[in-house]
From TrEMBL:
GO biological processes: lipid metabolic process
One Gene Ontology molecular-function label: phosphoric diester hydrolase activity
Domain GP-PDE, residue spans: 5-249
PROSITE patterns: GP_PDE (PS51704)
Name listed for the protein in its UniProt record: Glycerophosphodiester phosphodiesterase
Top-level taxonomic group: Bacteria
Biological source species: Massilia eurypsychrophila
Length: 253
């Protein structure tokens, strides 16, 4: 079941701002988005940070692995300059700061747990535990729609998240949905299946929905494809093109 918004800004602000930064969230807000997907992994000292790649060099200047650096070191690095000089000085966000900004601005979150290889269980546990603390009031009130949705390609991370925060919703992430996806999703207590829209078929979309799961696709940057997915019954998707596919995108728009 999908009780969340239909269109999410991918990696915070899509492709209009440096990914996984507060500047990205500001950009999403400026485009009317109040729902985002973003990626979280651990620094050397076990502090969750908002980052996509497990190594430096693409969005953050430098070299080595993210887990070679403590959170304070990462937070002092520049995650905006690569995208444009107007974003120079934009820091790598601490997960806690990113969530606080989202909460303060009414932004709903799909938190993708993105563990570095070898850190799957630890990352799932740490991220879920932190989220559970930050959303204690929403969880206690049974406000499922306001609490975040945790997702991951790592079923080990999701199992650890389930153990640490059973009352936070989870979604299993597949590039292509495998044939025997359902027992895996059920074992994790997942409420939704997230998948790469490029591999999704109408038949698989139907199968997932008939089984009672929400269905979410990444990353949809074409309006014609977005409409087709909605026709197939896809519940939600994230987009990089928040300028072209707005938060109220729907069949008929
Ligand atoms: O959560 C869906 C999507 O973000 C997965 O791919 O590489 O953009 O994190 P990626
Ligand atoms: Mg992601």
């Amino acid at each position: 079941m999908w009780t969340y918004k239909k269109v999410l800004a991918h990696r915070g602000g899509g492709k209009l701002a440096p990914e996984n930064t507060i500047a990205g969230l500001r950009c999403a807000l400026a485009h009317g988005f109040h729902a985002v997907e973003f990626d979280v992994m651990l620094a050397r000292d076990g502090v969750p940070m908002v980052l996509h790649d497990p190594y430096l060099g693409r969005t953050v200047a430098g070299s080595g692995n993210v887990f070679d650096y403590d959170a304070a070191e990462l937070a002092a690095m520049d995650a905006g300059r690569w995208f444009g000089k107007q974003f120079a000085g934009e820091p790598v966000p601490l997960f806690a700061d990113f969530v606080a900004f989202c909460k303060a601005n009414g932004i709903w979150m799909n938190i993708e747990i993105k563990p570095a290889p070898g850190f799957e269980a630890e990352t799932g546990k740490v991220v879920a535990t932190a989220a559970r603390v930050m959303f204690a009031a929403e969880i206690a009130a049974g406000d499922v729609a306001a609490a975040p949705l945790l997702s991951s390609f790592s079923e080990t991370a999701l199992a650890a998240a389930q153990a640490a925060a059973p009352d936070l919703a989870r979604a299993v992430l597949f590039d292509a949905v495998p044939r025997y996806w359902e027992p895996r999703a059920r074992a994790l207590g997942a409420v939704a299946v997230h998948t790469n829209h490029k591999h999704l078929t109408e038949g698989m979309a139907r199968e997932i929905r008939l089984a009672g799961f929400g269905l979410f696709c990444y990353t949809v940057n074409n309006r014609i494809r977005a409409r087709q997915l909605l026709r197939w019954g896809v519940d939600g998707f994230c987009t990089d093109r928040i300028d072209m596919i707005g938060p109220d995108f729907a069949l008929g728009t």
